Amino acid sequence: MLLETLEDSLSGSAKIGYDSRESASRRTANNTDRTTQTKGPMSTISTNTLYLVRHGENLANITKEFSYKLVDYSLTPKGVLQAEQTSIFLKDLPLDAIYASPLKRAAETGEIIARPHHLPVEIVEDFREINVGDLEKMAPTLENWNRYGQIYTAWANGHPEERFPGGENFLELIERSRRGLLTAIHERSNQRILIAAHGGIFIKLVNYFCREANAQPDYRLMHNCSITEIELTNNNGEMHGELRAWASISHLSGEAADVIELPPI
Predict the structure, then answer these.
(1) Where are the alpha helices (DSSP H) in 12-140?
(2) pLDDT one digit per residue (tens) for the chain, 265 residues
(3) Active site (annotated) includes residue 84
(4) Which residues does the entry assign to the active site, renumbered to this chain (predicted)?
(5) From the annotation, which residues make up the binding site?
(6) CATH number at residue 103
């Protein structure tokens, strides 16, 4: 698990630094580039490592506003600090590409992380936060957050057709998540890709594409600038993920590590 390797390296105890070039080359050799083409009808299987970084703190985290498109705040000073600490933590990780949601909090987080890598941040519309529809125009009251929770619970209980009024349902969310992932991994294999986006979409993405028992993440543990690591295999558009690390914040310290209260759902 690369995040654990990075933690060990930084602490000096064997818990995280990115794996060495030797380890990386050995892994590539063992996986034969992890791209397989079968004889007969063309079939391509590729595997990439994804780092899902939730954005740093923004005002909506404090006010509890619903924020899909109309509400779009930049990072707070604390959010900038969180992104900077994440950037320092990941600076020696050989990333191949960085993508971000178009919302300011995610795009700014991606830009800060990208600085030491000298990589562009590619904006992908499909990585936008869950479309809560009419809720975004309403006050962030307990009643309205309960409405949000009812839809979220319905999805978890096997009712993917339930939708946010004026927004999307689970099936639509997963389809655009899938499109976003296909954009990120297009013509890539055995690469490391970072995506800066949102807790809501990340949680459902991991739930859906990482179907093992260990892929039932607790949304209350996905804090600002937490890092989730998955290994994603794509077989001609059919994707399956293996969850390697969930919402790690061990790289944050001081004010950046102060956990903000989550919405009341």
Answers:
(1) 21-31, 59-63, 77-90, 104-114
(2) 666 667 654 443 223 333 322 333 333 333 434 444 444 455 589 999 999 999 999 999 999 999 999 999 999 999 999 999 999 999 999 999 999 999 999 999 999 999 999 999 999 999 999 999 999 999 999 999 999 999 999 998 999 999 999 999 999 999 999 999 999 999 999 999 999 999 999 999 998 999 765 555 666 678 999 999 999 999 988 999 999 999 999 999 999 999 888 776 5
(3) no
(4) 55 (tele-phosphohistidine intermediate), 129 (proton donor/acceptor)
(5) 54-61, 105
(6) 3.40.50.1240
Q: Which domain holds residue 186?
A: 46-257
- List 7, 65, 108, 129, catalytic entry: 129
Residue type for 40, please? G
Pairing state of beta strands 35-37 and 97-100?
unpaired
Which residues does the annotation place in the binding site for substrate? Answer: 54-61, 105
Active site (annotated) includes residue 55: yes
Q: Report if residue 1 sits inside a domain.
A: no
Q: Which of 55, 117, 223, 251 is catalytic?
A: 55
